[in-house]
Amino acid sequence: MIWVKDEVRLHKHNYHIENVYVISGKGEFRLSDKIFQIKKGDYINIPKNTPHSVKVTSRVNQCRFYLFNRHNLRE
């Protein structure tokens, strides 16, 4: 579980997908070239090599996320 106070800058993961479940808070989530408004209960699937970031918009300035990854092993 992670807590995001302000933002997570744009980045990507080369070898695994990432799944995010929003536990609390609100934010703007960038996935590639699209921006989504996210809130408690939302689920986001991030394919590998996909740029993504989040900016917290909650009044309390905090968002909690549960992250789980599926590593894709090289053959």
List the helices and strands and how they pair.
Elements (H helix, E strand, L loop, with lengths): L1 E3 L2 E5 L4 E9 L1 E6 L2 E6 L3 E4 L5 E5 L6 E9 L4
Antiparallel strand pairs: 1-8, 2-7, 3-6, 3-8, 4-5, 4-7
Compute the number of helices.
0
> What is the percentage of strand-forming residues?
over 45%
The CATH superfamily name is Jelly Rolls
Number of strands: 8
End-to-end Cα distance: 30 Å
The main pleated sheet reads as: 4 strands, antiparallel
Tally of domains: 1
CATH uppermost class = Mainly Beta
The radius of gyration over CA amounts to 12 Å
Provide the CATH topology. Answer: Jelly Rolls
H/E element order = EEEEEEEE
> On the 0-100 scale, what is the average pLDDT?
87
Secondary-structure-derived class: mainly beta
Proportion of residues in helical segments: under 10%
CATH arch. level architecture: Sandwich
